[in-house]
Write a structure and sequence with these properties.
CATH architecture of the largest domain: 3-Layer(aba) Sandwich
CATH superfamily of the largest domain: Type I PLP-dependent aspartate aminotransferase-like (Major domain)
Largest sheet: 7 strands, mixed
Order of helices and strands: HHEHEHHEHEHEHEEHHHEEHEEH
Shape: globular
Strand order of the largest sheet: 1-7-6-5-4-2-3
Distance between the termini: 30 Å
Structural class: alpha/beta
Number of domains: 2
Number of strands: 11
CATH class of the largest domain: Alpha Beta
CATH topology of the largest domain: Aspartate Aminotransferase, domain 2
Strand content: 15-25%
Helix content: 25-40%
Number of helices: 13
Length: 345
Amino acid sequence: MKDELKRGFASDNNSGIHPDILKAMQEANVGHCIAYGDDIYTQSAIVKIKEHFGEDIDVYFTFNGTGSNVLALKMLTESYNSIICAETAHINVDECGAPEKFTGCKLLSVPTENGKLTIEKIEYHMHDFGFEHHSQPKIISIAQVTEMGTVYTPNEIKEITSYAHKNAMFVHMDGARLCNAAVSLDRDLREITADVGVDVLSLGLTKNGAMNAEAIIFFNQETSENFKYYRKQGMQLASKMRFMAVQFEALFSNDLWKKNAEHANKMAKILAEAVAEISQIQITQKVEANGIFAIVPSEIIPKLQKEFFFYMWDENRSEVRWMTSFDTQIKDIEEFVLLLRKLLK
């Protein structure tokens, strides 16, 4: 049991819950509240979210990131549409076909070296509009942070959203690690979403110290009309919503979201700097948030994973992914690097 509780570098989903989040949930655990979001906690959390993302938005809480992504995409598409995304996108690789199953849309994936879409790459799929034999591109979906640990700059996002809007398309952002991106860029959350033209955001705080804090934010309120019915049909409407809502309230108060993300990003930088000094290790992506991608001699990977669990990213290249979290400690990194050096002797 002790080994199972040891902090590894597999995922920020593997971390625990920040004490302030648990405290907020405990404080909300009194008396009775009207269910399904008609309670003071949920309304207060929405007000707090609007402080960070703007007043003219619609906010809907969901259970998980996949549900958030799928319903956001469903709301803005018809089944004959297609969704352009990076080949490594979570919606393309890690959601078991849920986006295609529930939207009916075709995913058009784009190969990338760093997980980031560009206009040049998107243009490959921009053809046959109005041709009834061809699925019609409607959404460009980007992840911030990307699945390769890289971060879109505001200018890069604006270029994509401007291109999409000129072509009567929408831009969806998978913001599972949006807080880490904002810290990396030294921008506030609105500057890298609403202000640069994102239409709909799947906002995730679960990876940043929460238990299950996920939401969909519509920046264009015209697109969210009747969304409440889609959320119910999509089985993402929580009855005891107050316990989800207070997690947002706590994280968006006193800059807790920023402090947690800053710590995770800092730990990633420290880990990256330490392993970069080891000649047998090759870091493959820029370390811009809280993820490190590296090529490691394959023979030592199982031994490393036994002590500090992490995921293989690309077995063909012997490439692994190391993630840091809000609760990663310096001693975790020191012990990991010490073991890494020992195994490579």
